């Protein structure tokens, strides 16, 4: 279904230029002008446009973006699976943040979503208030629109909570009468989000029209949010911050894991979605059976530039940005086709490291010798265009500094992206993640057999063998591995390490690496080289980032998170 309208709209509608898709439908709305706010509530079409405009918040995070941080996949570049290639401010800002934890302060938060997030929350609360106070819609229509709005509100609060833990809960427009509002506890914030998502899941239909959330999207997001709450309850234990409002009661961990498990099972059991046997097709086929909630694009007006940012330079006559590339730490994580671990210490593996790897490796990584757009990739030192450059030797190398390029999310058929840009979809919620959420929730409930069975079902669809484990530690090891390779470049890794409270270990005092590939008489030599020129720095206080200083100054009831 394609629905096109050119219509005047309210200043509050804040329509997006992006197309959001659900159930293989898309909405393409191009607002041209504005009407007085009062007119919105007398016109059902304007109300619908206002509701659709709320979804523009997802645009802030498409393709792994973070508002104000720079470019696609920047969030994975904060972790150990992607390396940004530039050393200069702008393209290389991520590298400054990861190598200097003092870059984060109340005056310069580093990852700042506060103003943007609360602007969206106010619009949502205004919309809900208007529905009931000013519109003449039927009760069922009001309930549906409220459920959609609360879905987006939960999404927005989730980002604020991931950054700061304890934030201000504003659920009613009347609360804005007082400009001074205090922080609520992190536990209360997660309860609030979960309540919004449960409401949405209970009151939305199983399927929906184009561009809107439905019951399954609400449950998928609920499984993610509740999993985070369970993780914080289990792993934080008030070890990293003394603020009385941060942290979640340990005794509630299993309660949150059960919510996550139930929500994930509702999605899986609905029968509306299915795991793909062809992993690469998830990201190239707009009709993939795995997409639960996605952002679609349509040329020529609605496009993006992911390919220009990440494709190998020879794809565009030696001219692409190559913002980020996969690290050796990610490449080494992919198993062999038979499910055994890859190891450079294994002579057979080391002699031909890209042979007989699991299917997800070939769908995710462009390596030396890979076939790509009709050519054989040469990422060795001998190719002046696609070949290796040591990180730091050039401020803007615009080529690989690890010996690899990111293949996942690229459009394999797009050869004109420099002129026509790109239109492949961004999938925000997909079934593969829901399986991983379910497996981790079951492990949190000490159902290790069930967790292993869930992971094995996912792995079987990816063409890999089953796994078994029977302890909390072995379960987390297996789950972390699976999330690292399954969700690579989808923006999860950094946040996973934070919620497991492992970031201060995994991302601190280390340098990620790449492989300098050089030809020899029998093939190639692979030398491990650093892809960082400074040690990375993640102090434990970064689990709760500071509230921007300006917000503290204008809100007299708002206190800074302790430790900042």
Percent of residues in helices comes to: 25-40%
Calculate Rg over CA atoms.
23 Å
- How many helices? The count is 21
Average of pLDDT: 92
The quaternary state of the protein chains shown equals single chain
Kindly report how far apart the N and C termini lie.
50 Å
Order of strands across the main sheet? 1-4-3-7-13
Describe, in plain words, how this protein is organized in 3D.
This protein has 564 residues and is α+β, with helices and mostly antiparallel strands. It has helices spanning 37-40, 44-54, 74-77, 93-99, 114-133, 139-164, 186-203, 215-235, 253-269, 281-284, 306-310, 328-331, 347-351, 359-364, 417-420, 431-444, 448-461, 472-486, 493-499, 503-506, 549-554; strands spanning 2-5, 8-10, 19-22, 25-29, 33-35, 82-84, 291-296, 324-326, 365-366, 371-372, 375-376, 405-406, 426-430, 513-519, 524-530. It has a five-stranded mixed sheet. It has a two-stranded parallel ribbon with strand order 2-5. It has a two-stranded antiparallel sheet with strand order 6-8. Strand 14 and strand 15 (524-530) form a beta hairpin. Helix 2 packs antiparallel against helix 5 (114-133), helix 5 (114-133) runs antiparallel to helix 6 (139-164) and helix 16 (431-444) packs antiparallel against helix 18 (472-486). It is globular. The chain starts with a strand and ends in a 10-residue tail after the last helix.
């Amino acid at each position: 279904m394609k629905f096109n309208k050119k219509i005047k709209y309210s200043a509050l509608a804040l329509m997006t230029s992006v197309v959001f898709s659900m159930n293989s439908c898309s909405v393409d709305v191009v607002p041209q002008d504005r009407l007085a706010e009062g007119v919105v509530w007398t016109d059902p079409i304007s109300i619908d446009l206002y509701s659709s405009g709320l979804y523009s918040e997802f645009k802030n995070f498409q393709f792994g973006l973070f508002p104000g941080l720079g470019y696609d996949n920047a969030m994975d570049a904060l972790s150990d699976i992607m390396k940004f290639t530039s050393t200069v401010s702008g393209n290389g800002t991520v590298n400054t943040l990861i190598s200097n934890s003092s870059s984060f302060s109340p005056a310069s938060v580093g990852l700042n979503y506060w103003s943007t997030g609360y602007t969206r929350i106010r619009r949502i609360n205004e919309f809900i208030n208007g529905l009931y106070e000013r519109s003449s819609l039927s009760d069922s229509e009001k309930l549906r629109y409220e459920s959609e709005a609360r879905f987006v509100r939960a999404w927005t609060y989730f980002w604020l909570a991931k950054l700061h833990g304890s934030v201000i809960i504003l659920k009613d427009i009347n609360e804005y009468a007082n400009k001074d509002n205090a922080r609520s506890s992190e536990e209360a914030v997660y309860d609030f989000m979960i309540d919004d998502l449960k409401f949405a899941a209970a009151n939305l239909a199983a399927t929906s029209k184009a561009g809107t959330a439905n019951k399954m999207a609400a449950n998928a997001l609920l499984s993610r949010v509740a999993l985070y709450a369970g993780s914080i309850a289990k792993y934080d234990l008030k070890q990293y911050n003394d603020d009385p409002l941060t942290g979640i009661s340990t005794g509630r961990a299993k309660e949150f894991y059960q919510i996550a498990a139930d929500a994930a099972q509702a999605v899986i059991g609905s029968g509306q979605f299915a795991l793909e046997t062809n992993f690469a097709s998830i990201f190239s086929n707009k009709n993939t059976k795995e997409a639960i909630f996605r952002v679609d694009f349509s040329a020529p007006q609605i496009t993006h530039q992911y390919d220009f940012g990440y494709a190998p330079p020879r794809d565009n006559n030696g001219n692409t940005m190559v913002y980020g590339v996969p690290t050796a730490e990610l490449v080494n994580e992919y198993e062999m086709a038979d499910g055994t671990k890859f190891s450079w210490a294994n002579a057979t593996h080391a002699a031909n490291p890209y042979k007989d790897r699991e299917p997800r490796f070939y769908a995710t990584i462009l390596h030396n010798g890979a076939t790509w757009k009709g050519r054989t990739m040469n990422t060795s030192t001998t190719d002046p265009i696609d070949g290796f450059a040591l990180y730091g030797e050039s401020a803007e190398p615009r080529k690989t500094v690890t010996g690899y390029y990111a293949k996942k999310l690229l459009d394999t058929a797009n050869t004109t992206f420099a002129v026509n840009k790109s239109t492949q979809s961004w999938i925000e919620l997909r079934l593969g993640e829901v399986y991983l959420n379910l497996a981790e929730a079951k492990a949190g409930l000490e159902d290790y057999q069930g967790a292993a069975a869930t992971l094995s079902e996912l792995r079987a669809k990816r063409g890999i063998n089953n796994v078994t484990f029977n302890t909390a530690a072995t379960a987390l090891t297996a789950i972390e591995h699976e999330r690292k390779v399954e969700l690579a470049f989808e923006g999860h890794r950094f946040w996973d390490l934070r919620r497991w409270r492992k970031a201060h270990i995994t991302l601190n005092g280390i340098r990620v690496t790449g492989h300098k590939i050089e030809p020899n008489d029998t093939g190639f030599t692979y030398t491990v080289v650093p892809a960082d020129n400074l040690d990375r720095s993640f102090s434990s206080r970064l689990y709760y980032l500071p509230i921007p200083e300006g917000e503290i100054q204008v809100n007299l009831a708002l206190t800074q998170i302790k430790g900042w």
